[in-house]
Structures are given as structure tokens and as C-alpha cells.
Amino acid sequence: MAPFSIMTVGANLLTRSWSLFSTALTVRCSCVAPTLKNFSTTSGGPPKRPLTAYLRYVIEQQPIVVKQNPEIRVVDVVRKIALQWRTLTPEEKRPFEEASITAREQYKVDMKAYQEQLTPAQSAALAEEKRQKMAKRRAIRKKRELNSLGKPKRPRSAFNIFMAEHFEEAKGTTVPGKMKSLFDDWKSLSLSQKQIYMQLAEDDKVRYKNEMKAWEEHMTELGREDLVRRKESRRKKAATKKGKKKSRVKVLKAKAPAKGAAGKKSSDAETKKTPSSTKK
Question: Which residues cross the membrane (predicted)?
Fold first, then answer.
């Protein structure tokens, strides 16, 4: 049974793709792989992955919950279904789990048939696409981790501050329309009017620098040096090396006079010996 927190992580993703999920149940790749005439690594290519038992339950319950609660937000619909899923008994979950297992087995068969028809170039293209997707997922996971660890937000530019302040009252009914309107308004501002936002942006840079310094020190204390900026890490290492070098120089300088005195004594002794040897 998945924890509620894990279930709700995908709420936003589910809300954006109801149509995709609803068609995914009926349009499964139960036949052999598609022909490769119109091969594409982004669409019409390999069989689609089967849905999990939980997602099958979500798709089944979504229209029922919406009908019962017509004014509820989509994200709240998902949360409500997640709570329902948690209360189901193993027997009630079994039909969804069995359907998911059957779909996974069929997916393996379809995928094998599909891969057998690929050319080496197509296989390489799919491998590259998979690599890019994995890199994107790692980046998303990394961002979520940094947010959970309280990493400070990057400083905003002068225009971003202006945009946040005037977005609600901006002209336009869509986000791109509002953005264009705000950009035009920004260009029409005088330098003295922009100076206010430029100063706020400079203040935000100082805030970010101070917060990042404190945050990175805290991450180092937690043993998460991997999250510290490379530039900062290199700077600290360089400072450490510089300090060690200075220490060595001081030690050498301290030893140098003693060596000089010893050398002078030996040279004086040799000078004294030289006349006596000459007399002989």
C-alpha cells in the first residue's frame, strides 16, 4: 500500500493528462509492433508502458468522483481517490492488480516483437532517447531533493520583480499575452523608473549569496558536499592549499638561518685550515 504522500506527488501530472490515461486503457499494444515506415522515437514507436493498479483505479473512479462532486478541483479529486485506494481491502484491489500484471506480460511480448524489427540505427536512436529521459528524471529528482533541503531560491532579475508586481493587472487573457504586455510596459519605463527594480534585484543577489553560503555550510556539516557548488568547493580547496603552502614556507624560513649559520661555521673552519696546510 503506497503512502499517501507518494500518491499525491503525481497529482499535478495526473491532472494534466486525464485524456491520455483514459485512452491508455483501451488502446493497449495487444498486437505486434507498429510498422517502422513512419518510425519516430517520440511518437508511434515502441509499445506504451502498462498502467499500474493504482492508476487503473484512479481512471475508473475519476468520473464517479467528479459526478458526485462537480465543483471539486481536479487535484482534490486525485487526493480523494488516493484516500479511497488506501481504504480498499486486498480483495478489492486484486482485480486492478491482476489487470496490471496481465498488461505487463503483454507489454513484454509486444516490446520484444518491436525490438526485433528495429535496425541498428533505430535501436541507437531509442537508446539515446532513453538516456535523455533518464537524465531529465534525474534532474527533476535532484530539484525536488534540493527544494526539500531548503536550497535558497535564485535571485530575480529587475524585470522578474517588475513582472511579479504587475502580473495581475497586466493586459491580456492568457499568460503569454500578459507576458508580452508586461515586456512592452517594461521597455517603456524610464531609466529612473527601472532603477527601483534594479536596486531590488541587487538586494536579492546579496540575499541569495548570504543564504547560499549558510546553506552550503549546513550541507557540508550534514556530509552533503556533493550539493555544494563546485566553484565554492574549488575555492575552499585552493584556500586550504594556499594556507598549507604558506605554512611550509614559514617552516623553511625558520630553518634557513640555522643552515646559514652552520654553513658559515664550516666555511670559517675551512679558511683556518687552509693557511696551516700552506705552511706545511
Answer: none
For residue 198, what is the domain's CATH number?
A: 1.10.30.10
| Rounded Cα gap, residues 200 and 193, in angstroms | 12
| Alpha carbon distances (Å) from 66 to 56, 72, 81, 196 | 16, 7, 10, 48
Same domain, 17 and 113: yes
State the Cα–Cα distance between residues 110 and 40, nearest whole angstrom.
17
Is 204 within 8 Å of 156 (Cβ atoms)? yes
Residue 89, all three cell numbers: 481491502
Domain ends where: 58, 86, 117?
117
94-101 own/partner pairs: CB under 8 Å, 24+ apart = 96/53, 96/54, 96/56, 96/57, 97/53, 99/53, 99/56, 100/50, 100/51, 100/52, 100/53, 100/56
C-alpha cell at 82: 488516493
Q: Which domain holds residue 193?
A: 158-221
The domain tally of the chain equals 2
